[in-house]
Amino acid sequence: MRVYNFAAGPSTLPLEALEKAQAEFLDFAGTGMSVTEISHRDKAYETVVRQAESLVRELLNVPEDYAVIFVQGGASTQFAAVPLNLMRGGKADYIVTGNFAKKAWQEGQLYGEAVKIGDSSDKTYTYIPDLDKLKYSEGADYLHITSNNTIFGSRYAEFPKCAAPLVADMSSEIFSREINVSDFGVIYAGAQKNLAPAGVTIVIAKRSLIQDPLKICPTMLRWKVQDENGSLYNTPPAFSIYMAWLVLQNLKDKGGVKAMQQQNEYKAGLLYDFIDNSKLYKNNVEKKYRSIMNVPFVTGSEELDAKFVAEAKKAGLVSLKGHRIVGGMRASIYNAMPVEGVKALIEFMTKFEKENG
Amino acid sequence: MRVYNFAAGPSTLPLEALEKAQAEFLDFAGTGMSVTEISHRDKAYETVVRQAESLVRELLNVPEDYAVIFVQGGASTQFAAVPLNLMRGGKADYIVTGNFAKKAWQEGQLYGEAVKIGDSSDKTYTYIPDLDKLKYSEGADYLHITSNNTIFGSRYAEFPKCAAPLVADMSSEIFSREINVSDFGVIYAGAQKNLAPAGVTIVIAKRSLIQDPLKICPTMLRWKVQDENGSLYNTPPAFSIYMAWLVLQNLKDKGGVKAMQQQNEYKAGLLYDFIDNSKLYKNNVEKKYRSIMNVPFVTGSEELDAKFVAEAKKAGLVSLKGHRIVGGMRASIYNAMPVEGVKALIEFMTKFEKENG
Q: Which among B72, B190, B238 has the least Cβ separation from residue A235?
């Protein structure tokens, strides 16, 4: 029996995409081979990569002068790739609004002066610093942000406007809300939340910015190389790209990013409203900055939190335990989480509150 | 209908492993989730990683003081990781016996003095340089070799013995023949030939060698970090590791590396014998250095080669086209290629020779 999976990543994927992958797992597109076995130089596979790229361009309305590439690994690898591709002047700004934002900033320090110009750790990352009060460094090569904080459940309501190119890690919210790609120099996102199984990261980068990586940048981290080779410089993470292709088709069928944003706001609205009106559960994020992807909440009692997670699992609502850094619960309600899943969670929370409130 | 797939990588995988993955694709181990959806912190998934590691240790008889880790990406990423983890003295030796050996050597030059102490490009990499005549650099941090050359079909019959730690890229032959791990400082292998779908690389490294990576080494390329975290420092390429686990179980069921080596030598023997006795086909690799994984051959006519590839495909023998650098044909006969596949190929070659010889 399939469960409702609230994991933060890897996380639930659209059932239609999984079923298609399963059905053709031994024989992809009439080739007589699994998509995991087919050469990446085979036309049938090249079509997958090209169509996946086209779908990204279409669904996010990516301008022509931006590269769209699929690279190996996760966002953590890109924490190094960002400075290695962009930090030519030796200085960049970072806003630290969560665990991964902090890791990106620390990684930046390996390659130059990584200036922390904003930090919301004083209130355990439950808000985004006031953008109007930030002091951007003169001559910074870029400003790095993490647009949605998976662990703490906060997100940027709007994005910083500064002279340096804006680089955003959108791993836990890409394709969940409409964005204007031309506001960014680089967007990158590990696939394992809204896009595909782990192992691939999508990078969307303004081509003029990525022509001159640092000399010490590993070839495989050079975005320019992957762009020039259509993500096929060497063997790509073929199955993850294939699944991304299926998920993107599914997203298009469901009305694209705009429709998905509406559904995500509806789902998150249901859950936040319920929490705010409950006497047992609490979400500590400032309302303006609440994520529509990751909803952390606590009962105020660690014992009760543990009981909640265990009983929810028995009810088919799994992976609700909060990240080990914050404890409590967290419901990740990515694109692939149906409204019914959120309603089932609220129903369970209601019952649990009655029994334990 | 399943075909016989002679692709060099991604390449054919054991049908039993594919069928198991397909059967449980929507519900892994009774979790109600696909293995592509499950959190890497879930016990059910941690078990996969730990068992996959154990199987590598068991099947290759890996000494206790060696790390066995699964890292993101392919061998090309490790071309940078090798110097970034090991080149503390700023100098390393490389033997260039093929396309990927050359790429590894070129990548090494980004981080220090990469000395080419051997080179077989004068005869299009159809042999391995005489190991007794090599001049190893004094104080080299390591000696890098590519043990099997996927494109040119040559391989080391025995391995160099030198003062510096031996680092071997075994992507296209790991688990195909018995090795003595303690002869090596580091072994690495991209999965997509004998192990799993693309997206993961296995690294086997003597722990004492990997404690002090260069300061500029990206965190995600630090073998020490992955070793300390049991390959779960961050989200791993979960599906590829899962498939590796299935393939390794299958390998164990079939008698392990020793049995596999016997079968591989038998398969390769059949094919080389046929080629050597034919009037139409030719393999140019020195007999002593012939790969038992990748068997390139030519007819001597480009037109006939193209006809061969096209007609073979119609007969259900696919991906036989040689690499674009060398042309002709190449039959990659990895662990998962059954004896019947090689026999079917020989049967087709016989018929084709009669019709076109």
A: B190
Q: Tokens at residue B277, please?
A: 């006795």
Token duo for residue B167: 């680092």
Partner residue facing A11 (CB), from B37, B107, B200: B37
Quick check: A234 contacting B, CB < 8 Å? yes
Kindly state whether A8 is in contact with chain B, defined as any CB-CB distance less than 8 angstroms: yes
Alpha-carbon distance A244 to A53, whole Å?
10
Q: What ipTM was estimated for this complex?
A: 0.97
* Chain A residue whose CA is closest to B37: A11
**In Å, how far is A6's CA from the nearest CA of chain B?**
10
Q: Give pLDDT tens digits for B170-210.
A: 999 999 999 999 999 999 999 999 999 999 999 999 999 99
Q: pLDDT tens digits, residue range A164-180? A: 999 999 999 999 999 99
Residue environment code for B292-303, b if the CB has 16+ CB neighbours within 10 A, otherwise e: bbbbbbbbeeee
Q: Does A197 touch chain B (CB under 8 A)?
A: yes
Helices A256-277 and A43-60: crossing angle in degrees, nearest 10, is: 60
Calculate how close chain B gets to A128, using CA atoms only, in Å. 25
For residue B185, CA distances in Å to A1, A224, B85, B87 come to 47, 33, 12, 13
Task: Give contacts of B32 with chain A, Cβ < 8 Å.
Answer: 1-3, 5, 316, 318
